[in-house]
Amino acid sequence: MMLSLATRRLTAATTTTVKSGNAALMSTVAAAVAAEKEGVPSYVLSAAAPTMSTTGNGIKVCSAFTADGSGSPHVTVRIANLGSRNDKKGGEAALLASTLNGTVGREHISISSLKPFLPTSSEHLEQLKQAQLSRVANASFTAQMMDQLHGTAFQIAPKGDSLGNALEGAKETIASLTADDVASLLGGIDGSSVTVVGTGNGDHAKLVEEVEKVLGGVKSASGSGKEVAAAGEKSAFIGSDIRIRYDSHSNATIALGFEGASHTDPKAMPLALMSTILGSFTTSAGLGTNVSPAMCQEVADHGLASSISSFSLNYSDTGLFGMVATAPDNMLDDLFWYVMPNFVRLAHGVSNEEFARAKLALKTQILSGSDGDIALGEQMAEQIQTIGRVMPLAEMLARVDALTMDDVKAAANDVINDQDHALAAIGGIHELPDYNWIRRHSYMLRY
User: Fold this and answer.
1) Average pLDDT of 239-260?
2) How far does Cα 216 stand from its chain's mean position?
3) What does the alpha-carbon distance between residue 51 and residue 203 come to, in Å, rounded to a whole number?
4) pTM for this prediction
5) Residue 16 clears pLDDT 50, i.e. is over it
6) With bands split at pLDDT 50, 70 and 90, how would you rate the model's confidence at 39?
7) Per-residue pLDDT at 17 exceeds 70
8) How far apart are the first and last CA of the chain?
9) How far apart, in whole angstroms, are the C-alpha atoms of residue 6 and residue 398?
10) DSSP letters of 106-131?
11) Of 39, 133, 195, 243, which sees the most CB atoms within 10 A?
12) What number is the average pLDDT over the span 141-146?
């Protein structure tokens, strides 16, 4: 209990520190956990602190190499402020990621090797465009609805950096992309937006030397002094929905989202815990109705959906919290009769058993995010660019332990209780409740 109370006080202090970009005080929570040494695995406490350097042109180089000298090195390169939200036509960030053998996110590009940022030939670019068109045409309904959910939730972009842009663009926009569009994105990269992380077996000094050799041509940082990438203006969340009806389909895919939290928002951790409380379920998992989360138990017991999964997505200025489900066309009304009360009850409290189980599940997710050199490199690069530092595992676990039921209730009141939502649906949706019905069921009538 003493650790929990101390950690709660430290958490409030460290949140401010993250926003200011000063990492000097950020080890206090981890130190408190290490001093207590209760409930934290020994391999977490004994993990070596990462080494950080900055090159002459502003590129951050971080490493967490193993001390035993076994294995091979892995390098992760992450470019911030260069994702689908920065597209001008649609799909150019994804096309650039393909030229670099990387993947695109809504606010970044991730590359799993260290190579120069160079344009490709026109012939290769056309091949990549065809591959991108194929991916868009064959995207799952779940991926399509998550794109549509972002599109309807974030329709307004004062600075032209819309989170509503499709992750890989649309058929029409991809076809219109040229080598100049990709080159303009390459030209906008500077050192402050690039982070290189080394994991596995290696030497930090050699990694820095290699980065300076390979990426020394990247133009110097602008000199803003900001360690955490941030959007120019907060994205406006608009309560709305988009429905694509096919009466010939026997199933429907629905994505429901509320306005969530940014990476540095104090609500980010409570929302992550809320997501584990709601949980996920799929009929292909082999568990049948033997799933732990209450919402998933009800969905499984009544055969309401073949899959349902909650999510909490964080971006530089906002976020999305919600669920995505695939269900039979004649079960949608029943599905929402069970889903909405499970969302709303988060604002009124859940059982102690559910709360404890969700904490364990969230800790498992956090630890699995560091399982392997590739996953660890991705996690470290993301943290450096979103909160300005690498957060020790011990501190992350301490932050989970410090959460209380009041934290969850407060976050749910801000995000879910009597709040507008966004929705995207496709397929046989003739039984899907209308917007006003779902909006009305975002709160309880209690006297």
Assistant:
1) 97
2) 30
3) 10
4) 0.87
5) no
6) low
7) no
8) 34
9) 10
10) SSEEEESS-----PPPHHHHHHHHHH
11) 195
12) 97
Give yes or no for residue 244 having a pLDDT over 50.
yes
Nearest Cα neighbor of 86 from 189, 172, 175 is 189
From its phi and psi, is residue 438 left (phi > 0), alpha (psi between -120 and 50) or beta? alpha
- State residue 232's pLDDT score: 53
The rounded distance, in Å, linking the Cα atoms of 299 and 173 is 39
Distance CA 87, CA 97 (A): 12
Name the packing angle between helices 393-402 and 28-36 (round to 10°). Answer: 80
The percent of residues above 70 in pLDDT, for the chain, comes to 87
The Cα–Cα gap between 61 and 354 comes to: 40
Long-range contacts of 361-367 (CB under 8 A, 24+ apart): 361/276, 361/279, 361/292, 362/272, 362/273, 362/276, 362/400, 363/397, 363/400, 365/276, 366/393, 366/396, 366/397, 366/400, 367/41, 367/44, 367/393
| CA–CA dist 41, 301 (Å, integer) | 36
Tell me the pLDDT of the chain averaged across its residues.
87
Q: What's the rounded Cα separation, in Å, for the pair 353 and 348?
A: 15
Task: Answer for the pair 126, 119: CB distance below 8 angstroms, yes or no.
Answer: no
Write the CB contacts of 64 (distance below 8 Å, at least 6 apart in sequence): 48, 50, 51, 197, 198, 199, 376, 380, 390
Nearest to 309 by CA among 286, 283, 332: 283
Reply yes or no on whether the pLDDT at 121 is more than 50.
yes
Please report, for residues 48, 74, 168, 201, 332, the alpha-carbon distance to residue 65 in angstroms, rounded to integers and kept in the order given.
Answer: 9, 9, 34, 5, 50
CA pair distance 49, 62, nearest whole angstrom: 10
CA distance linking residue 126 with residue 95, whole number of Å:
10
- C-alpha span between 252 and 403 (Å, rounded): 36
Q: Beta-carbon neighbour count of residue 209 at 10 Å?
A: 13
Assess whether pLDDT exceeds 90 at residue 355. Answer: yes
The Cα 125–Cα 285 span in angstroms is 39
Residue type, 377: G
> Do the Cβ atoms of 322 and 310 come closer than 8 Å?
yes
For the chain, the maximum distance between any two Cα atoms, rounded to a whole number of angstroms, is 68
